[in-house]
UniProtKB/TrEMBL annotation:
UniProt xrefs under InterPro entries: DIOX_N, IPNS-like_FE2OG_OXY, IPNS-like_sf, Iron_ascorbate_oxido_reductase, Oxoglu/Fe-dep_dioxygenase_dom
Record-annotated Fe2OG dioxygenase domain positions: 175-281
Pathway note: Hormone biosynthesis; Plant hormone biosynthesis; gibberellin biosynthesis
SUPFAM superfamilies: Clavaminate synthase-like
Name used for this protein in its record: gibberellin 2beta-dioxygenase
Name of the gene encoding the protein in the UniProt record: GA2OX1_2
Alphabetized UniProt keyword annotations: Dioxygenase, Iron, Metal-binding, Oxidoreductase, Vitamin C
Length: 329
C-alpha cells in the first residue's frame, strides 16, 4: 500500500488503489439471543478479532437520541466547538488525532466514562447547558457497557474460563479506565474526482483496551485488515454493533485472539457519525495471559500494568504496533 499526500486537501493521508466500494459479506454475525453464540464469538475473535452483534439489549432510542445530540454539537460553529478543545486527550479534537502528529478527515469528542470526571468535565467540554447531551451519553454508555460485559462473559464461557466474569469485572470496576468517543467524518467532495484514491478519516490502528463497541449511522467508511493482508469494507448498519478485540484482550488470551487493525475512509457525499465505547481495565491492573488459557505455554508478553501500556501507547503513532514493545524476545 502506498501512502501519499494529495495537494489540495493539504497534508491529509491518502490510501491508493483501494477498492473501497466492494463490501465484504463475511463479517461474523452474532445473534445474542441464540444459545450457541458463545462458541461463535470465540471463533470470530480468533479469526477476525471483529464481529457484528444483532438482537442486543441496547434500546434504539438511546442510539438515536445520542446521534441527534451529537449532530447538534458537530453542527455548531467551529469557534463554539473549539471551546471544548483541544483534546488533551479528552475534549473536542479536529483533524489532529493523539499527541504525535497523526491527522485525519475527522472531528471528535473524547470523554472518560468515569462518572465523577463526567460531571465536571461535561460542563467545561460541552458548554453551559450540557445536561441533555450528558444524559444521552450516560444512558447510551451504561447500556453499551452492560452489553459489552455480557459479551465478555459469553466469551469466558466459550473459552471455558472460570469465573465467567474474569474479563467483565474489569469493565465493571468503578476504577475501570474506559473511554467514549464520538467521531464525525464530514463529507469531502474534493475526493470524488480521484477514483482510485481514498482520503483517510481515521488512520489504521488497533485499540489498546480490552474490547471496543462501535455504532455508526448508515454511512460506509469502516475497514478492517484481514489476516491475509487485505483491507475489506464493512457494510454500515445503524441497528447493530461492531465489536473489536483490543490489544489487552490479545495479551490476556496469550495471542489466541488478535486485536483487529482497522481504519475509516472519508466519504465524498455523506457524513459519517460513529460512537465508540472502549472498555478498559483499572490503571493498576496487571495485563497478563490468564493461567487457564496457557496449557503449559509460555507467556508471549512481558509483565505490565494497564497504566504502563497506556503511557507507552500515548508515545506511539496511530499505525504503530504498540504491543511489540511488550513482547518477549
Ligand atoms: C486508539 C483507540 C481510541 O480511539 C483512543 C485513541 C487515542 C487518542 O485518540 O487519544 C490514541 C490511539 C487510541 C492509540 C495511540 C495513541 C492514543 C491516539 C494515539 C496516537 C482514545 C485510545 O485509547 O487509543
Amino acid at each position: 500500500m502506498v501512502i501519499l499526500t494529495k495537494p489540495g486537501i493539504d497534508h491529509f493521508p491518502i490510501v491508493k488503489n483501494c477498492k473501497s466500494s466492494s463490501f465484504f459479506n463475511g463479517v461474523p454475525l452474532i445473534d445474542l439471543s441464540k444459545p450457541d453464540s458463545k462458541n461463535l464469538i470465540v471463533k470470530a475473535c480468533e479469526e477476525f478479532g471483529f464481529f457484528k452483534v444483532i438482537n442486543h439489549s441496547v434500546p434504539m432510542e438511546f442510539m438515536t437520541k445520542l446521534e441527534s445530540e451529537a449532530i447538534k454539537f458537530f453542527s455548531s460553529p467551529l469557534s463554539e466547538k473549539q471551546k471544548a478543545g483541544p483534546a488533551d486527550p479528552f475534549g473536542y479534537g479536529n483533524k489532529k488525532i493523539g499527541p504525535n502528529g497523526d491527522v485525519g478527515w475527522v472531528e471528535y469528542i473524547l470523554l472518560s466514562t468515569n462518572s465523577e470526571f463526567n460531571y465536571q468535565k461535561f460542563a467545561s467540554i460541552l458548554g453551559v447547558n450540557p445536561e441533555t447531551i450528558r444524559t444521552a451519553v450516560n444512558d447510551y454508555v451504561s447500556a453499551v457497557k452492560k452489553m459489552a460485559c455480557e459479551i465478555l462473559e459469553m466469551l469466558a464461557e466459550g473459552l471455558n474460563i472460570h469465573p465467567r466474569n474474569v474479563f467483565s469485572k474489569l469493565l465493571m470496576d468503578e476504577k475501570s479506565d474506559s473511554v467514549f468517543r464520538l467521531n464525525h467524518y464530514p463529507p469531502c467532495p474534493e475526493i470524488q474526482q480521484f477514483s482510485d484514491n481514498n482520503l483517510i478519516g481515521f488512520g489504521e490502528h488497533t485499540d489498546p483496551q480490552i474490547i471496543s463497541v462501535l455504532r455508526s449511522n448508515n454511512t460506509c467508511g469502516l475497514q478492517i485488515l484481514l489476516k491475509n493482508g487485505h483491507w475489506i469494507s464493512v457494510p454500515p448498519d445503524p441497528n447493530s454493533f461492531f465489536i473489536n478485540v483490543g490489544d489487552s484482550l490479545q495479551v490476556m488470551t496469550n495471542g489466541r485472539f488478535k486485536s483487529v487493525r482497522h481504519r475509516v475512509l472519508a466519504n465524498s457525499v455523506k457524513s459519517r457519525l460513529s460512537m465508540i465505547y472502549f472498555g478498559g481495565p483499572p490503571l493498576s491492573e496487571k495485563i497478563a495471559p490468564l493461567a487457564s488459557l496457557m496449557e503449559g505455554e509460555e507467556s508471549l508478553y512481558k509483565e505490565f500494568t494497564w497504566f504502563e501500556y497506556k503511557k507507552s501507547a500515548y508515545k506511539t503513532r496511530l499505525a504503530d504496533n504498540r504491543l511489540v514493545l511488550f513482547e518477549k524476545v
